[in-house]
């Protein structure tokens, strides 16, 4: 078992012995969190699949329409200010609150999206609200999910919750993108509203009445101590760059397929884009499932590095093969699958546990992780539009993403080398009384 998941269990309280097997109660509790993850995953990635429809409906360019993604990412970072609530409210009602925020933000997007001609600023604000619970949820989940899982399966427990995001990408995002053309893109957000409502009910009915953070086991000054050591900053930057590299290309995948792959000509229809998104979701599901298993067998930094190698190779192939897509449309599906398999290594379970290691676990690990990933989401989306407009191809964005991810990979090799002693040093300071 990795030091990260052991620390997560220690910080959140010791889970009962379950013989290394998932009980029905544990599965039900983890599924309740997975439903919440599904709602958040669909809320985050739906705009990726609907980007052409949103741009057409609002009569703006795809680059401008992607500001909706940018403001969602800003909301994710701002929402981390809600994390102190997790120290005061039980798991049951904290997750219920997260569901309520998801419902509110996406309900506002539905309403304002139908009047966006005079409410663009408010529409951006609705995505900001929708993003608020995202990082907060996954920050708290990094403690709660390992606690609910059986001993020795903590990484898999966390990946079950993250899998909700991947299922959203297999089902929710493609279905939403297909429906956008017939019912209007804003109306698709009603699906998320309904899923959020179900998630709220499940959270209230299944989660335990216990504090996510054990107040008696929290150490003051852990963050300050972590910031004194180079691995903290290397890890923060590495996770940020890994996410930036990925989202520089993926947040524009629909535009890439239709513009560079000419997906809407030569016999291809909007249905082709829908199937592309299904393939993307399958890739995320496989990658997420594998990452959860590898992190229990290897270590967080090694598992994340494996995913970063995968990401770099995939983005390099996208960049190299984009010029030949029009004559080989099947490559779109292959490249999307290869790239999406890497997503939940650097923005899922392994990297989240790396962040736990670098902060001696606790709620701070979730804060660091979500700040880094969503800052990367924000940066990648922000820089990709100008790059495409200057070059005339989204393949250039893939080149840029590859270069950024390569730097992240180099930094993770450093983290692997120092992984075992990073946390030992910090925990030693905590337990030795060097932290006030």
CATH classification, class level: Mainly Alpha
- Name the CATH superfamily classification: MFS general substrate transporter like domains
**SSE pattern, N- to C-terminal:** HHHHHHHHHHHHHHHHHH
CATH architecture tag:
Up-down Bundle
Largest sheet: none
Q: What overall form do the CA principal axes indicate?
A: globular
Category by helix and strand content: mainly alpha
CATH topology: Growth Hormone, Chain: A
Distance between the termini: 30 Å
Tally of separate helices: 18
Average of the residue pLDDT scores: 81
Low-confidence stretches: 1-18
Question: Could you estimate the helical fraction of the residues in percent?
Answer: over 70%
Rg over alpha carbons: 21 Å
Beta-strand percentage range: under 5%
Number of domains: 1
Features:
436 residues, mainly alpha, Growth Hormone, Chain: A, 77% helix
Question: What can you tell me about this protein's structure?
Answer:
With 436 residues, the chain is an all-alpha fold. The protein has one domain: MFS general substrate transporter like domains (Growth Hormone, Chain: A). The protein is 77% helix and 0% strand. It contains 18 helices and no strands. Helix 5 packs antiparallel against helix 8. The longest helix has 37 residues. The protein is globular and about 55 Å long. It starts with a helix and ends in a 5-residue tail after the last helix. The relative contact order is 0.16.
């Amino acid at each position: 078992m990795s030091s990260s998941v052991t620390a997560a269990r220690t910080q959140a309280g010791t889970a009962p012995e379950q013989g290394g097997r998932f009980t029905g109660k544990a599965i039900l509790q983890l599924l309740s969190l997975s439903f919440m993850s599904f709602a958040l995953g669909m809320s985050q990635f739906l705009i990726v699949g609907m980007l052409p429809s949103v741009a057409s409906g609002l009569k703006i360019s795809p680059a401008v329409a992607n500001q909706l993604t940018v403001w969602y990412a800003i909301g994710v970072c701002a929402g981390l200010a809600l994390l102190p609530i997790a120290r005061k409210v039980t798991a049951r009602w904290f997750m219920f609150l997260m569901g309520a925020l998801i419902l509110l933000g996406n309900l506002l997007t539905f309403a304002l999206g139908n009047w966006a001609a005079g409410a663009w600023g408010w529409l951006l604000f609705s995505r900001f609200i929708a993003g608020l619970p995202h990082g907060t949820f996954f920050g708290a989940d990094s403690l709660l999910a390992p606690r609910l899982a059986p001993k020795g399966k903590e990484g898999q427990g966390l990946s079950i919750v993250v899998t909700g995001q991947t299922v959203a990408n297999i089902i929710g995002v493609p279905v939403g993108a297909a429906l956008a053309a017939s019912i209007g893109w804003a109306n698709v957000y009603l699906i998320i509203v309904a899923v959020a409502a179900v998630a709220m009910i499940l959270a209230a009915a299944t989660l335990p009445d216990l504090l996510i953070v054990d107040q008696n086991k929290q150490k003051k000054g852990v963050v300050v101590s972590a910031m004194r050591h180079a691995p903290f900053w290397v890890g923060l930057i590495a996770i940020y760059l890994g996410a930036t590299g990925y989202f520089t290309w993926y947040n524009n995948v629909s535009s890439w397929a239709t513009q560079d792959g000419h997906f809407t000509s030569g016999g291809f229809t909007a249905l082709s884009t829908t199937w592309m998104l299904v393939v993307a979701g399958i890739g995320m599901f496989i990658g997420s499932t594998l990452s959860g298993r590898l992190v229990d067998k290897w270590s967080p930094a090694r598992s994340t590095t494996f995913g970063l190698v995968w990401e770099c190779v995939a983005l390099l192939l996208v960049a190299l093969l984009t010029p030949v897509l029009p004559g080989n449309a099947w490559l779109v599906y292959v490249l999307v699958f290869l790239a999406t398999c890497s997503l939940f290594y650097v923005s899922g379970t392994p990297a989240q546990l790396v962040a736990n290691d670098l902060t001696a676990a606790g709620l701070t690990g979730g804060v660091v992780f979500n700040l880094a990933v969503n800052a990367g989401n924000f940066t990648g989306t922000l820089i990709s539009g100008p790059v495409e407009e200057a070059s005339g191809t989204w393949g250039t964005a893939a080149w840029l993403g590859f270069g950024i991810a390569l730097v992240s990979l180099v930094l993770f090799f450093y983290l692997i080398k120092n992984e075992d002693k990073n946390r030992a040093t910090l925990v030693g300071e905590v337990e030795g009384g060097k932290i006030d």
